Amino acid sequence: MINKTFKCDYPCTDINRNMIYPQVEMDTNLIKLVMISEAPSIDYSNYFYKNISASFFQTTKVAFQDAGIDIKDYDDLTNMGIYLTTAIKCSKKDYLVSSKTIKNCTNFLEKEISQFPNLKAIMCMGDFAIKSINHIYKSKVGIAPIKTGSTYKIRKETYELNGTRFFPSYTQTGDSFNIEKSKRRMIAEDIKNALDYLKSN
Question: What's the pTM?
Answer without folding.
Answer: 0.94
